[in-house]
Amino acid sequence: MSVLKEKNKFIATILAFAVIPMSGLSTDIYLPSMPSMATELGLPESSIQLTLSIFLISYGLTQFFAGSVVDAFGRYRVSLISLALFVFSFLITATTKDIVVIYAMRVVQGALAGIVVVSKRAFFVDVYKGEKRKHYLSIMTIVWSVGPIIAPFIGGYLQKHFGWQSNFYVLAGYSFLLLLFEFLFSGETLKVKRPFKIDFLVKEYNMMFRAKDFFYGILMCGLSYAMVIFFNLCGAFIIEHKMGYSEVVAGYVSLVLGLAWMCGGFLGRFLIKKAFLPKIRIANYIQLALIVAMFFASFYTNTIYSLVAFAFLIHITAGFIFNNYFAYCIGRFPDSAGIAGGLTGGVAFILTSAVSYSIVAVLKPAIQIEVAEGYFILGIFGLLVLTLTKWRKAHA
Asked: Domain residues for 183?
């Protein structure tokens, strides 16, 4: 197996950053197409929304063992195989109108995303040390947010001119380019392989779950990202079906909210040296205040501008909390970086999917005040976790 050459270290790092947004690209590029998919396939909104939740569940479940896979078999080979399978799965999705086949491909794509993203997270821990490692792990979460920013913006135009299938053709092409460059310029970075054994994996998970700061951090990651997915599940339908705007406008809205998420990440980077828990609690308080303001404002205004303005500010706080906690969790156990990254992503994204889909299914948001209600539920859950964290620290 080809070992990463020192001369290729920079380009391999760029490639790793290019792979990291794959999960976001796979979930967000077709958001503006979801209403059209429902109409063209003759299915209810919930059936199309389920394609996103299925992906996230698969993505999360895979990460439970993906870390052990990349720690046992290496980062490079696993990445190559995953990218190759991405190409075929996206092509199948683009050429079928059978929702069962689409569901199956979304399961496959979620699993592949989980494996390849965990592999690239571990890459940064392998290659960089100390402050550089912190620097790149923090940047990684910001780069990861690029997918949700640009994907729906591109997807809106693809939907308008070529239909929903074009989203998956573009993803297949992007995966092929990554596969080609990965093969040519990257290499193995794992120095010591760990055994792929169930008992070893259970032992590692048990050790990590016993670290309460790590466990609470995972919960906060899941709840923070659930705010984004909650809006993604209902936003396009509200904007296109209830408000009467086009899929391009829905794409622009997702672009703006993606920028909000990135702003939260940059804010996290800017305040990286501030005391950890106090800044997280302040962000949660601001978040809840914004949600309450959104709720009361809904009695006076219910336009796309007010909806997006409040969502933008709320998503900044969510991005800030996620960026801080995610970087903390995946760097918490540097000697088992793949497993730690997999466990963090696994629990966080399963929680994200389950909570966001459940809230949408119960509330069925169609207007601004109902979106505020969904945000409020998530914000209160976050406050509860932070209260438990504070209580535990006080009684440690």
From this structure: 6-187+195-394
| Structure tokens given for 314 | 């709320």
The number of domains in the chain is 1
Answer whether residue 226 is part of any domain. Answer: yes
**Residue-wise pLDDT tens digits, 204-226:** 888 888 888 888 999 999 999 99
Give tens-digit pLDDT for 163-217.
999 999 999 999 999 999 999 888 888 777 776 777 777 888 888 888 888 889 9
Residue 278, both tokens = 């106090």
Residue of 257, 234, 246, 247 whose CA lies nearest to 148:
257
Say how far apart CA 93 and CA 96 lie, in whole Å. Answer: 6
**CB-based contact 117:22 (threshold 8 Å):** yes
Q: Supply 89's token pair.
A: 């799965």
Burial class (CB in 10 A: 0-12, 13-18, 19+), 193: exposed
- Report yes or no on 1 lying in a domain: no
Helix (H, G, I), strand (E, B) or coil at 3: strand
Residue partners of 186: CB distance under 8 A and separation at least 6:
4, 8, 11, 12, 15, 16, 76, 79
- Judge contact between 220 and 325, C-beta under 8 A: yes
Q: Is residue 367 part of a domain?
A: yes
Residue 128 amino acid letter: Y
Cα-based angle 377, 49, 79 (whole degrees, multiple of 5): 100
- Is 370 contained in some domain? yes
CATH code of the domain containing 47: 1.20.1250.20
Torsion-angle region of residue 42: left (phi > 0), alpha (psi -120 to 50) or beta?
A: left
Residues 186 and 190: their CA atoms lie apart, in Å, by 12
